[in-house]
Amino acid sequence: MSDHSIITQLSADLGGIDIISDPARAARFARDFSWFSPVLKELLADKAADLVARPADEAELARVLAACYRHRVPVTARGRGTGNYGQCTPMQGGVVLDLARLDQVRWVRGGVARAQAGALLSDIDLAARPLGWELRMLPSTYRMCSAAGFYCGGFGGVGSINYGTIGDPGNVTGVRVVTLEAEPRFLELRDAEARDLYHAYGVNGIITEIEFALAPLYDWQELMLAFPGFMEAMRFAQAVGSSGGIAKKSLTVMEAPLPELCGIGASTSAGKADACIPADQAGERGSGGQAGARIPAGQAAALCIVAASSREALTGIAAAHGGSVVLAQDHGAVYNTRDSLIERSWNHTTLHTLARDKTVTYLESIYPAGDALAKVEELWRHFGDEVLMHIEYMQLNGQLTCVGIPIVRYTTAARLDQIAAEHRARGVHINNPHTYVLEDGGKLASESRTLAMKRRLDPAGLLNPGKTRSEVEAARGA
Amino acid sequence: MSDHSIITQLSADLGGIDIISDPARAARFARDFSWFSPVLKELLADKAADLVARPADEAELARVLAACYRHRVPVTARGRGTGNYGQCTPMQGGVVLDLARLDQVRWVRGGVARAQAGALLSDIDLAARPLGWELRMLPSTYRMCSAAGFYCGGFGGVGSINYGTIGDPGNVTGVRVVTLEAEPRFLELRDAEARDLYHAYGVNGIITEIEFALAPLYDWQELMLAFPGFMEAMRFAQAVGSSGGIAKKSLTVMEAPLPELCGIGASTSAGKADACIPADQAGERGSGGQAGARIPAGQAAALCIVAASSREALTGIAAAHGGSVVLAQDHGAVYNTRDSLIERSWNHTTLHTLARDKTVTYLESIYPAGDALAKVEELWRHFGDEVLMHIEYMQLNGQLTCVGIPIVRYTTAARLDQIAAEHRARGVHINNPHTYVLEDGGKLASESRTLAMKRRLDPAGLLNPGKTRSEVEAARGA
Predict the structure, then answer these.
(1) Model confidence pLDDT, tens digit, residues A285-332
(2) Which residues pair with A95 in a beta bridge?
(3) What is this structure's pTM?
(4) Where are the alpha helices (DSSP H) in B331-428?
């Protein structure tokens, strides 16, 4: 925590700006979804902000930064708090800079959208869709996630099967940043320079506006399919993913009992299943009842978002693998509601499972392209019930591959590390979601470029301090 | 050739239908672009049709087929004659069935277009584009190629980097076929059954209508870039292809002197370069003259069609590999004209090169995904000037890879076979374009399904006879 008198002076300097100093209220702004990790939960438990600043515009933002620089108070940027690694949690107190009020969508034109840092992803999408465009990818938190927060703390999501990660060249075309200096400067960074801020947790610059390249809007359909076993569902997904002719936005597979745990499976005990998927959308099996929109107990699930024109081909492949469609709904009709299958994919699968069972946690794995199916089967057999398989398909470096967000039955941090090591030993990459240290997460494009940008935009090293490896090591040495 | 009296009777039965019996005129309809291959040119030199039938509608088509069945006269379907393997050349004479007059685009809706067999691909595209859709892939012949001809004799093209081959599940959703029987029946075949007619040269059924799943229309830009060397251009293309964030429709690389040979390079001797690319589109380098729109002598070329929003990222990657943009033009503005870069890609590169140098031919290769760049370099070094590298990027089985359409300095058929064998020995697949035998070309999805469909739709075995391996072997035995 910063010295009390300095914070008092800082508060005085910020007259007219919305600030929060009440500790209970401020605490909320220093928290994200890092509680998914029992490891981070413990590590970050005592971290708090001295003050939350909520600028309404760039002028107020510049005033906040100038004042923080003057008093040498750390500044930790926050989007909407949907991160999983404590990105908005200040390691050394100071100011949490809430960017949620910079929430305007500036424009959508020529297949590009520009928005303020705190704009909701869903608001950008809702502005783009009437023009025939949509965001290229959405984290499962898109209804509450900010534009710059996704870029600085996210990775990919629904749509990554076409466009890779949000950090891949071409997905974000530019950002407007502000420096943390005596007189903060606003700069436009394009292309490669903009990418230096990707997944950097705001340690190397504060984004005020961000430009996303868009995808043309398809008439997407959401399909939920049941399969007798996990590998049948995987082979189906692999076949669908491998066919260039099936236009898709998302492809998710989960083994039993994950469908039940995350609220889309038939409940083995009465009254436990979510009512999130309306009964009148059951369709396909003709049951017309809610039971028709459930994955039967013990079965694996595949969740697909595909173009309407691809549905026939997908259904044919499903039948060949013993699968059947239990729910079909128009994506546009459920977009931005709890009924979309997006809510059961990516890390929302973890969220819903944690809502039912506090004893689990998760990992993030990347399977080797070309060998993904065999490796998924190998690890599925290896871990048994301790690691429940949840697979998302995505494009990485031009290759279709599987990323895993498996649910892990948590015992100890040591065992969690061992499970990660057993993945690595079998050629499966792990991005560690149980660390707040920037370089240890595994998603930075270039550590040296990231840190060079920090020296340029944050010469005093006040942005989100304590998150880089050198700072962590310095703190350990101290 | 069929018995003269039978042909006379057949002609009489076809009263009121447009038929061509004059040998010189009929000969035109038995020819395609198989002259690209010196091997096929020789093998097919003496093949001719006895009669060309040009039905105006399905009723006339059924009359032609019923009459041919009655007289047991072979029927070889022809689209627009843009094939490369003698698909429309009758091995045993009989009737060439010209489907060019069945040229209507039936409808475009819900991301799907349906057209008659003989409709020009460009006409389908021109109908789809105002609705925000376009064909998913185009052969370089799209301005003269028929819808069903592309499906029955083609493979992929511009757009295959996103959607794979035209035979991949989901690209063609259905076909309407007519049987060759006493009373021809019209049948709708969907999905997997429709795929049994893919690349089957019309030996197993006559398509009368075909349904293509479409792609959403992007605001594509065509960019032509010059690189100091072939591998610089390849590494650029690999980086662009591997970035999910760069939305692309086409990615072509050719080594020097192919740019000059196919008409986009600066000429080393005056007056040889095409004037196909208008001087006023030179742009970028600011020369404003035609020279600015040429690949400098000795340099490699990359031809790219990318989304406008991806141009900045592409240019950044080009600069990192020593490349520079020598031409930039709006794809929509040059679509369906000779000015589009499509005219210098896929097999049009071969066409333009052959127009200048009759001593060359070509091959079709597929590089192993994941190892493509290294393999391309290995073969480029191995063959030197005998095989000039022309690479197209495409998606195959969910993986980005390179297909080669190299220009080969032709000496003998034996040496051509040896060059193919040297590819295979290095792990590079060859689809043999120097055979008219269906199974030997390498593109059939399933030989047994293809032949089973033939028994169903062509019980008397009259469709395009002499093209299947069993028929070829029977003929050799006779």
Answers:
(1) 333 333 458 999 999 999 999 999 999 999 999 999 999 999 999 999
(2) A51, A75
(3) 0.93
(4) 331-334, 346-356, 372-383, 413-425
List CB contacts (< 8 A) between A217 and chain B.
216
pLDDT in tens, A194-232: 999 999 999 999 999 999 999 999 999 999 999 999 999
Flag whether the ipTM exceeds 0.95.
Answer: no
Rounded to the nearest angstrom, the minimum Cα separation between B401 and chain A is 9
Q: Give the chain B residue whose CA is nearest to the CA of A314.
A: B170
DSSP per residue over B181-236, as a string? SSS--EEEEEHHHHHTTTTSTTSS-EEEEEEEEEEEPP-EEEEEEEESSHHHHHHH
Q: How far is A328 from chain B (nearest CA, A)?
A: 17
From residue A411, alpha-carbon distances to A36, A37, A383, B246 in Å are 14, 12, 14, 43
* Helix H or strand E segment including A452: helix A447-457
Contact (Cβ atoms closer than 8 angstroms) between residue A403 and residue A430: no
- Please indicate if any CB of chain B lies within 8 Å of the CB of A252: no
Q: How far is CA A312 from the centre of its chain?
A: 31
Mutation target to probe the A interface, by most A beta carbons within 10 A, among B399, B401, B402 is: B399
Q: CA-based Rg of chain B, rounded to a whole angstrom?
A: 22
Closest to B117 measured CA to CA, from B213, B14, B212: B212
Question: DSSP class of residue B286?
Answer: T
Between A172, A245, A398, which is nearest B164 by CB? A245
Give SS3 for A474. Answer: helix
Q: CB distance from A215 to chain B under 8 Å?
A: yes
- Do residue B310 and residue A170 have CB atoms under 8 angstroms apart? yes
